[in-house]
TrEMBL record:
<protein>
    <submittedName>
        <fullName>EAL domain-containing protein</fullName>
    </submittedName>
</protein>
<feature type="domain" description="EAL">
    <location>
        <begin position="28"/>
        <end position="281"/>
    </location>
</feature>
Amino acid sequence: TAMYLSKSKGRHAITVFNGDVNNWNLRRHRLRQDMLHALHNGEFLLHYQPQVSLMDNCVVGAEALIRWQHPEYGLLSPSAFLEIAEESPLIVEMGAWVFNEACRQLRHWQELGHSLQMSVNVSARQLASRDLPGMMEQAIKGHGLSAHFVKLEVTESMLAQDFDAAAQVLAALKQKGFRIALDDFGTGYSNLAYISRLPVTAIKIDRSFVTGLTVDKTALPLITGIVALAKSLDLTVVCEGIETPEQRKLLESTQCDSIQGYLISRPLPAEDFYSGFLKTRFM
Ligand code: C2E
Ligand code: MG
Ligand code: MG
Ligand code: MG
């Protein structure tokens, strides 16, 4: 039997395990092997979560989020496998697959007459690979897309290791026209002075701030301030993790551009995203 991982409390926890190979490294090795196989076997897929304009509720974008349709364990979320992929060069290949698939899907929706931006998450190892801009440029060219419709999401933690190298790669990507968003903003040490040194075009305010909105009196002034500063730096602002109408309502007093969260929709398979958010609304 194989051994597997599922998200419990923010860390992966083994759920099924072959008793005599009781070794964490072996489990990880096995999981990486399985992921490599899964990649070549077409077991990964993307779900898409809508991003809507706060002002008029229009769908302005989609975030592509990886899933693994596992033959034994069903549909797995990134928390069950991504961290282990990220520890190895496998993430570079997986990331390239994600990027190409997201581009293919975006192009398909564009051909059906829809204008939206596609956000794709990028991991640290990908950013550290020098040919990332080349891979991405080739992908958009291959799909006949303009880089302006593609937004790369990076987190500040991945910039911590080699800030200058990462900033250089991001600058090259921005130069090619890609949009770049700092994901999970506010969870690390980043302040806006630091951001202004980075070639980013957007920030995504982390869900934890939004969660605080209805429970903590300082949360709204904090978000309002972050948004105002970001806007003064000409950055686009997305708020993530909006789950309730109250949270949405409170954000309306800020200059936040767009929102993403379960209130609008969970991440969806491409067909459901299309029928729920593109077809019915605009055609
Ligand atoms: P993220 O980029 O911050 O993506 C947002 C995560 O929050 C997603 O989880 C999404 O399903 C979840 N989410 C969205 N709205 C809400 C909400 O209202 N409430 C709550 N509680 N959660 C919400 P998911 O899909 O499990 O992805 C988790 C993380 O895995 C992502 O966080 C991202 O860091 C990473 N990830 C996902 N797909 C990829 C990928 O293709 N490549 C890379 N490198 N990382 C990925
Ligand atoms: Mg993201
Ligand atoms: Mg995020
Ligand atoms: Mg995150």
